[in-house]
Specification:
44% helix, 2 domains, 333 residues, 5-stranded mixed β-sheet, D-Maltodextrin-Binding Protein, domain 2
Length: 333
């Protein structure tokens, strides 16, 4: 009897140890910009942990990482070093096209925000896409495949014809948003034009002489999706409850941002150790061209262009082709 009790106690201990050792982890990556406020909200308010607990998962470890550009993030997602990646819809299309129909297939979780990005210059002679050859070098997040690089390609295709989409590719160089801003504002070096995302865009446009050359919402359409969250089929299928917790956390974070931009701004400032004022960040985050929404907007137009120029080998029939079913109730495009 004593032996049975000891064995029983040992089994309970081993089960408890195993459960503790197998605490699920959600590893999330983001880039430099204001397009990821939901992640700040989810971290500060422990929303993934909250919704996981509601679904019967008592403990979740959530770890965040920051990258510059989509290539390294996508590689990490495919190697199972990351679980969730956030970035431009273009980055999602690249990896979806590569993995479609495989066990590693990647699809979107949801949109995060509709927000524009722009190409800026300080040279008064550079006013339209036709003038980009005067830039010297153009800073983009990543050459050829990033959202600003594709914006330049799409603008060139509209101005000069589809065959000329890569007309300015040789002028582009990869830079982080902060470095691109410093380079343009300093007026030194080869950078005559740069991409701008918020809040760096607002900071640059406040400087005399800095002006907009290209605007993404004029190229892709108004209220176009700026950032999305996406993951692998492996993570989606591994534990449907955990995936649902992530989706529900994104929904609550989005609703909270819309209800309290001040709180969201404070979280962003704290996480980024930013010296910007709360009023400035709140004004930018609540700007007229900004909509915090999980609904994908104008994503098919971007995917069609990428397919037209051969960057994306598959033409999707619907935005639902590259999002997981949990998002199908959204009125996407």
């Amino acid at each position: 009897m004593i032996l049975h009790r000891l064995l029983g106690a040992l089994c309970v201990t081993l089960i408890a140890f195993s459960a503790h050792a197998e605490v699920p982890e959600v590893r999330i990556a983001r880039q430099f910009s204001m397009g990821y406020l939901q992640l700040n909200m989810m971290e500060h308010e422990r929303l993934i942990q909250k919704h996981a607990a509601l679904l019967g998962i008592p403990e979740v470890k959530v770890t965040g990482y920051k990258f510059n550009g989509p290539t390294a993030m996508n590689d990490a997602l495919l190697s199972d070093s990351l679980d969730i990646v956030t970035g431009s819809p273009m980055a999602l299309y690249f990896i979806w096209g590569r993995t479609r129909g495989t066990p590693q297939e990647v699809r979107g979780i949801s949109s995060m925000v509709s927000m524009t990005l722009q190409i800026l210059s300080r040279d008064p002679a550079i006013g339209t896409v036709a003038d980009l050859d005067k830039c010297g070098k153009i800073a983009v997040a990543a050459v050829k495949i990033s959202a600003p690089a594709l914006l330049i390609q799409a603008a060139a295709a509209k101005a000069f014809g589809l065959k000329e989409y890569a007309r300015f590719d040789t002028l582009t160089v990869s830079m982080t948003p902060p470095d691109a801003m410093v380079s343009l504002l300093s007026g030194t070096g080869e950078i005559g034009c740069t991409y701008a995302v918020q809040p760096y865009m607002a900071q640059m446009l406040a400087k005399p002489g800095i002006h907009t050359v290209l605007d993404a919402h004029r190229v892709w359409g108004p209220a176009s999706t700026f950032t999305v969250a996406y993951t692998s089929k492996r993570f989606h299928d591994r534990d449907p409850r955990l995936y649902r917790a992530v989706y529900d956390a994104m929904a609550e974070a989005t609703a909270t941002i819309n209800a309290d931009l001040g709180k969201a701004s404070r979280y962003w400032i704290e996480d980024g150790e930013s010296k910007l004022s709360e009023d400035f960040v709140r004004t930018v985050a609540g700007g007229p061209d900004v909509t915090w929404t999980m609904t994908p907007r104008n994503t098919l137009a971007v995917a069609k262009f990428m397919n037209d120029v051969g960057t994306l080998k598959v033409q999707p029939d619907s935005w639902k082709d590259y999002f997981f079913p949990e998002a199908y109730g959204l009125d996407g495009s």
